[in-house]
Write a structure and sequence with these properties.
Elements lengths: L18 E6 L4 E5 L5 E2 L8 H9 L8 H17 L5 E5 L7 H6 L4 E5 L14 E7 L8 H11 E10 L6 H5 L11 E2 L2 H10 L2 E7 L2 E6 L1
Parallel strand pairs: 4-5, 4-6, 6-7
Antiparallel strand pairs: 1-2, 2-3, 3-8, 7-10, 9-10
Length: 218
């Protein structure tokens, strides 16, 4: 690649044109939106779909792995405290070996699955859910404006959206952050970004851990 890349200088979450360079490393440039504070990687640096899937194929998310189950419980435990019995949920971005659904189904809930690479069942977008979980997913979103809108359209009023993703704190920490070394990570969120989302989709926001976020649709 030669010359100055065409970034497409608008925010993929709020469509604001007020974006500026936030960080640059050997591989990519990262832009930040002044409005919603999303940090994002321009399209010209994205992996191809084949390379992206090849990266995901290397993940070892085994439902029988107690360490992985414990990791997911950091979302499922606080979410279960909010849920009535026997509800219908969606594991959004479930990956090749759904584990979160195993934990929630063991508590009496019914789960559907969606993943663009491993479970591309578009019928889920016609459904309504009492809760939706997205664990280590939103940092991969190519079009977060459209995809968050789809999530909240599927979520019933009073329903819960549970998210796990690492949060941006400051520029120095970002420059040293292991999270940006994963080339499939292209969208990075801060508390301010989730405050924007809560306002945009009329939801109550809770940060229950440094990387666990709950949104309750009003």
């Amino acid at each position: 690649m030669t010359g100055q890349p065409n970034f497409g200088r608008h925010c993929p979450l709020c469509s604001c044109n007020d974006v500026y360079p936030y960080h640059q490393d050997k591989s990519r440039i990262y832009l930040r939106c002044l409005h919603c504070k999303l940090i994002f990687v321009p399209r010209c640096y994205w992996l191809s779909a084949g390379d992206e899937k090849a990266t995901y194929d290397l993940h070892e998310n085994d439902p029988d792995d107690q360490g992985y189950r414990s990791f997911l419980s950091r979302l499922t435990a606080p979410l279960l405290e909010k849920l009535d019995p026997n509800l219908k949920g969606l594991d959004f971005g479930c990956g090749p070996g759904p584990t979160l659904s195993v934990l929630l189904e063991a508590q009496g809930h019914q789960l559907d699955h969606y993943d663009p690479f491993y479970c591309n069942d578009l019928s889920v977008f016609k459904n309504q859910y009492d809760f939706i979980c997205a664990t280590e997913v939103v940092e991969h979103l190519h079009d977060p404006r459209r995809e968050f809108a789809a999530l909240f359209k599927m979520l019933k009023r009073g329903g819960w959206l549970g998210i796990m993703t690492k949060l941006v704190t400051d520029r120095h920490a970002f420059s040293q952050w292991h999270y940006i070394r994963d080339m499939t990570h292209i969208s990075f969120y801060s508390r301010n970004t989730f405050e924007f989302l809560a306002q945009r989709f009329n939801s109550c926001l809770s940060f229950v851990a440094d990387d666990v976020i709950l949104l309750n649709r009003k």
